[in-house]
Amino acid sequence: MTLDNFIEYAPEVAAAKAAGLAIVALESTIISHGMPYPQNVQTARDVEAIIRAAGVVPATIAVLGGKIRIGLTDAELELLGQSPEAMKVSRRDLPFVIASGRIGATTVAATMICAALAGIQVFVTGGIGGVHRGAETSFDISADLQELAQTSVAVVCAGAKSILDIGLTLEYLETHGVPVVSVGQDNFAAFYTPDSGFKADFRLDTATEQARFIATKWALGLAGGVVVSNPVPASAAMPRAEIDEITAQALAEAATQGISGKAVTPFLLARIKALTEGRSLATNIALVKHNANIGAQLALALMGSA
Ligand code: PSU
Ligand code: MN
Question: What is the pLDDT of residue 27?
Fold first, then answer.
């Protein structure tokens, strides 16, 4: 068994690799477990279009038919968006979903692994997983953080949701040597709102500066990811008091219902969406599109600093 048996490129991505063009990876758990149908599929298509319009090739990543797929067709995006049986796949789940031939939607951690295997340096998503509130008793820390510690992919996101303990998430990243770079402001972003109240490590506003920083890290042999925190545009942000109240309610419901393990994050995302009657979804869509622009520019700049 060699890696070639398990990885398949879409023609567009294979051509981009051969020509040395900039490529941006995209995850699929955001499609299957992060947003409802049909907005999930529409957003996935729109994000790919934004990246293409910037002259960069998008590669949405998932596991289908026993293979890691780098770049999906429209019909495959639809399949991921509509299949309740699609598994949420993190690092530990990857061999299972490949070996069993099931439908797998990759998280930030698994998408980083697949992007690195495919030689893709930039990955755009919405929010990263992190240290959950109450982790001192639940031990619930997303595998995304360990992946950032070891896999050399830059992850453009809108920070981390306040369903998490953002302060502890940043502490964990610091311990593991993962730099958190902020775009356009000093503080780390909080997904629905621009400001988490915690400072990011470094503020680098331009793609050129971000690319120079990332290329320097890797040239020094410092393997591992970089978090690029891009705040939601103010015009699309949610009122902080409202999101705080809804987050508290969603967390209380998760505790009452005994939700645990990999189900926690999808449960909270779905409850927040329901409790805001879809307004959080509009914010979510807007921030992912904004991240696509930043990620495409970063991928182009990285080609120049390679
Ligand atoms: N946070 C979001 N939206 C998401 C996710 C997180 O705001 O869709 C998804 C991502 O795929 C992320 C995963 O990698 O949830 C983290 O899950 P867990 O907390 O179980 O590691
Ligand atoms: Mn977890």
Answer: 98
Which amino acid, residue 98?
I
User: Which amino acids are annotated catalytic?
Assistant: 27, 161
Q: Which of 210, 216, 218, 231 is nearest to 297 (CA)?
A: 210
Residues within a 6 A CB radius of ligand 1: 27, 29-30, 34, 90, 107-108, 126-127, 129, 142-144, 161, 191, 262, 265, 269
Mean pLDDT of 110-119: 98
Residue 88 Cα distances to 83, 190, 218, angstroms:
11, 23, 29
pTM of the model: 0.97
Which run of H or of E encompasses 203? strand 202-203
Ligand nearest to the CA of 145: 1
pLDDT of residue 305: 62
Whether the per-residue pLDDT at 277 is higher than 80: the answer is no
User: How many Cβ atoms from other residues are within 10 Å of residue 202's Cβ?
Assistant: 14
The residue whose C-alpha atom lies closest to atom 10 belonging to ligand 1 is 107
Q: What pLDDT sits at residue 66?
A: 98
Query: Cα dihedral sign for 208, 209, 210, 216?
Result: positive
